[in-house]
């Protein structure tokens, strides 16, 4: 039987690339997003028959919504093997202008949402003695970011730390938890944040001189989600064109 994967924030951007790559690699995929219609549309594109992909509404701030999608996946496919925490809100604002409520709103999706996902799926994986979790972090969580807000960067730093905690505590149960920290990717979200001039300026700062390819990140998720990926856990996989070396 093919493995099954739950991807959050999967209706567009990197999440859609990840869901598409997993499906192409033979996974059955739950494509989840706050935008239910867009999630359903992508699922219908991948599999019009609805056998190997379905779309579902999942607001990552809502633990019950995670549990409901898990129940639906188990009812359909019997099990879940992979969780990809990808959903995000990205807000650009100078640090001294961010209100505490704005800070909380970003953390609620990017950090708390990742925590809830790891916990809900972590319980399922622990019962079964197998599971893979891939958290999509960001270079901003390592270097403080450049184009994004402090709330976004802080949330992604938190994701890196959560990855280590879940990795350590779940390792004895056949579960691995890794993070990927991309630099700026060639995605609509980046073009929406940056004017063409700013984008060009950002590219000049990247040692390899280009934006990252979302398809490469998606392939890395497929690799980290595979049965063979049992010896990497608690790691942060840097994919940043040389912007941050350690
Ligand atoms: N774009 C980049 O260059 C870049 C760089 C580094 C890291 N990343 C990371 O890649 C991931 C995807 O980024 P993207 O650029 O594709 O973003 P995007 O904004 O294009 O897509 C984010 C998706 O998350 C969904 N979403 C928002 N709030 C949600 C919620 N409460 N519950 C569920 N879904 C919700 C949105 O509807 C959307 O489909 C994020 O984790 C981001 O931090 C992106």
Characterization of this structure:
The protein is of the alpha/beta class and 246 residues long. It has a single domain, classed as Rossmann fold (3-Layer(aba) Sandwich), CATH 3.40.50. The protein has 9 helices and 7 strands, in the order βαβαβαβαβααβαααβ. The protein has helices at residues 13-24, 36-46, 63-77, 100-128, 140-143, 150-170, 188-193, 196-205, 214-224, and strands at 4-7, 28-33, 53-57, 82-85, 131-136, 175-182, 236-239. It has a 7-stranded parallel β-sheet, with helices on both faces. Strand 2, helix 2 (36-46) and strand 3 form a beta-alpha-beta unit. Helix 1 crosses helix 9 (214-224) and helix 3 runs parallel beside helix 4 (100-128). The longest helix is centred in the middle third of the chain and has 29 residues, at 100-128. The termini are far apart.
Give the structure's gist in a few sentences.
The chain has 246 residues and is an alpha/beta fold. It has helices at residues 13-24, 36-46, 63-77, 100-128, 140-143, 150-170, 188-193, 196-205, 214-224; strands at 4-7, 28-33, 53-57, 82-85, 131-136, 175-182, 236-239.
């Amino acid at each position: 039987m093919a493995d099954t994967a739950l991807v959050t924030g999967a209706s567009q951007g990197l999440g859609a690339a990840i869901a598409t790559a997993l499906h192409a690699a033979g996974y059955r995929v739950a494509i989840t997003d706050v935008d239910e219609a867009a999630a359903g549309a992508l699922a219908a594109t991948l599999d019009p028959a609805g056998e190997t992909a379905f779309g579902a509404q999942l607001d990552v701030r809502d633990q019950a919504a995670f549990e409901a999608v898990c129940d639906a996946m188990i009812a359909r496919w019997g099990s879940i093997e992979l969780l990809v925490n990808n959903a995000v809100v990205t807000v650009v604002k100078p640090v001294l202008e961010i209100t505490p409520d704005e800070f909380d709103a970003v953390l609620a999706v990017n950090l708390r949402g990742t925590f809830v996902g790891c916990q809900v799926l972590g319980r399922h994986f622990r019962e079964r003695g197998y599971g893979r979790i891939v958290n999509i972090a960001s270079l901003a969580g390592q270097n403080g970011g450049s184009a994004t807000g402090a709330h976004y960067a802080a949330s992604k730093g938190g994701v890196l730390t959560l990855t280590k905690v879940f990795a350590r505590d779940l390792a004895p149960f056949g579960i691995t938890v890794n993070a990927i920290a991309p630099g700026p990717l060639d995605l609509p979200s980046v073009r929406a944040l940056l004017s063409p001039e700013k984008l060009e300026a950002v590219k000049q700062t990247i040692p390899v001189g280009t934006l990252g390819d979302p398809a490469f990140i998606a392939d890395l998720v497929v690799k980290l989600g595979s049965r063979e990926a049992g010896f990497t856990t608690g790691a942060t996989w840097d994919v940043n064109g040389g912007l941050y070396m350690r």
